[in-house]
Amino acid sequence: MITYEMLKHLGPTTNSLLLILICKCFASADIPDLWYQAMVFPIPKPHEWRCQLKNTRPITLLEVIQKSFVKLLYTRLSATLATHNVLTGGNFAGLPGGTCRDLIITLESLIHDANYNSSPLWILS
User: Fold this and answer.
1) CA 46 → CA 43, 49, 54, 105, 106, distances in Å?
2) d(Cα 90, Cα 25) in Å, to the nearest integer?
3) What is the pLDDT of residue 118?
4) Alpha-carbon span 85 to 104, nearest angstrom
5) Which strand (E) or helix (H) includes residue 56?
6) What is the pTM of this model?
7) Which pairs from 81-84 meet CB under 8 Å and 24+ separation?
């Protein structure tokens, strides 16, 4: 329940301790269990939903320190992963120049087909 406002007012000692905590998480590969969790909310765009994902804007909510950890990890890895084409297929959307568009279109097609044919649809992640 730490807010950005609280972090802005940290003193140099507390800032250093927070950095030490994050660095130790990296060094030991021991990440708190709660940092593996996030809440994803589909925010509707300013027009009718019509059961289409393209009519939403997903937002992921993370705890502030968790978000700082993820941002540091992303910053360190993204350039290397993009340069060396480590991720392929639909696994590159979060990298610079990547997009989720094709995955969203595929998912919408599956939903449309299931609705059109009145068949069940199971989506697992």
Assistant:
1) 9, 9, 12, 19, 23
2) 28
3) 92
4) 22
5) strand 56-61
6) 0.51
7) none
pLDDT at 9 over 60: yes
Domain boundaries, the chain: 4-116
Structure tokens at 8: 């802005």
Alpha helices in 29-121 (DSSP H): 64-83, 101-116
d(CA 121, CA 119) in angstroms, rounded, equals 6
Distance from CA of residue 39 to its chain's centroid? 9
- The whole-angstrom separation of Cα 111 and Cα 99 is 20
The candidate with the shortest Cα–Cα distance to 39, out of 15, 62, 57, is 62
50-66: average pLDDT: 83
Tens digit of pLDDT for each residue in 23-53? Answer: 888 888 888 888 888 888 888 888 887 888 8
Ramachandran assignment for 51, one of left (phi > 0), alpha (psi -120 to 50 degrees), beta (any other)? left
CA distance 51 to 92: 26
The answer, yes or no, to whether residue 13 has pLDDT greater than 90, is yes
